[in-house]
Write a structure and sequence with these properties.
Blueprint: H1 2-9, E1 18-24, E2 27-33, H2 39-50, E3 57-63, E4 83-90, H3 98-111, E5 116-120, H4 128-131, E6 147-148, E7 150-152, E8 155-159, H5 174-186, E9 188-189, E10 193-199, H6 206-214, E11 217-224, H7 228-243, E12 248-253, E13 258-259, E14 266-267, H8 274-282, E15 286-289, H9 294-301, H10 306-309, H11 314-332
Parallel strand pairs: 2-3, 4-10, 4-11, 5-8, 5-10, 6-9, 11-12, 12-15
Antiparallel strand pairs: 1-2, 7-8, 13-14
Helix pairs in contact: 3-11, 5-6, 7-8
């Protein structure tokens, strides 16, 4: 039957234009690709096919040629003047302390002699202005074309949070959010920067994929807590970056343990060493542990992150050690 129908259609269209012939009981659907629509030919095909025994209905459908598209295309990269290397600080889910980690890592990189910038790409929950003390301060533009980056403790910074009120939600679809991120990134006077830290939105959605494709990331740092539910999402983050060929610099276990400020007793509230074990399983570096401590939270909320407010503290040194490993990895790359 199919060959008979194909012979009929072949009177009017070439073999290359016949995409498919589907027979569904007493109904036939002929699919043509990249063929000019012609009502006379359509009527002729339908009339002739109906003369075949057992066929009551015939439909002719025209479609364009479909070419296979890769899941992750490689679009044109965004050009950020003056920035040598860019790293992503990401997490598979929210609430693991990613932004606090990004801010303190940026400060730690600057303390080790790197000319550092911090870009807040967590567009729906921008917290960098609060942690760096410029919340409520509008960015300056001297030429009406580019913004001047905010400066704090030898790092340059920019965030969508500097352009909106803290209580104003951004109800944007992914394309508009990505456009805003591109505009901010490329229209800021960054100067000469050795390392730019990008505080990524949590998850593995449209914005994360776009940033991973559009920026020349030298590597990605994944932040997770030790608990299983966070580690499951951390694995997804690692695999997303691998899919777009971004090297994994390593995994950080945040809120790794709690030290009582009164008695010094250590409590592993969310479990312990889960991120280290996950890093080993995924064959990526384990960068270190950051404790759950009130000082880290309090200094971040007050606009003076722990690395700058208490640089000699054990917590600041933990960030410094991780930053040193990142610098070493970037130099090897």
């Amino acid at each position: 039957m199919e060959e008979q129908i194909k012979a009929i259609v072949g009177k009017y269209y070439s073999e290359a234009e016949i995409a498919n012939i589907g027979i569904f009981g007493r109904r036939v659907i002929v699919t043509l690709q990249n063929a000019a629509e012609d009502s006379a030919k359509t009527e002729a095909i339908e009339k002739e096919v109906k003369t075949l025994s057992g066929i009551d209905k015939v439909a002719v459908i025209h479609t364009a040629v479909r070419t296979a598209q890769p899941l992750f295309e490689q679009p044109q990269k965004w050009q950020i003047r003056g920035v040598k290397k860019i790293i992503a600080v990401a997490s598979g889910k929210g609430g693991v302390g990613k932004s606090t980690t990004a801010v303190n890592l940026a400060l730690a990189l600057a303390a080790q002699g790197q000319k550092t910038a911090l870009f807040d790409a967590d567009i729906y929950g921008p917290s960098v202005p609060t942690m760096l003390g410029y919340e409520g301060t509008a960015p300056v533009s001297y030429d009406g074309k580019t913004f001047e980056a905010f400066e704090y403790q030898n790092i340059k910074s920019m965030s969508i949070g500097a352009l909106i009120d803290r209580e104003t939600p951004l109800i944007w679809r992914g394309s508009k959010a990505c456009g805003a991120i591109e505009q901010l990134l490329t229209e800021v006077n960054w100067g000469e920067i050795d390392v730019m830290v990008v505080d990524m939105p949590p998850g593995t959605g449209d914005i994360q994929i776009t940033l991973s494709q559009r920026l020349n990331f030298a590597g990605a740092v994944i932040v997770s807590t030790p608990q299983d539910i966070a580690l499951i999402d951390a694995v997804k983050g690692v695999n997303m970056f691998r899919r777009v060929d971004v090297p994994i610099l390593g995994i950080i276990e945040n809120m790794s343990y709690y030290l009582c400020p009164h008695c010094g007793e250590r409590a592993e509230i969310f479990g312990h060493a889960g991120a280290k074990e996950t890093a080993a399983r995924l064959d990526v570096p384990f960068l270190g542990e950051i404790p759950l401590h009130m000082d880290i939270r309090a200094h971040a909320d007050s606009g003076r992150p722990i690395v700058s407010a208490a640089p000699q503290s054990a917590h600041a040194k933990a960030y410094m050690d991780i930053a040193a490993k990142i610098v070493s990895a970037l130099n090897r790359g």
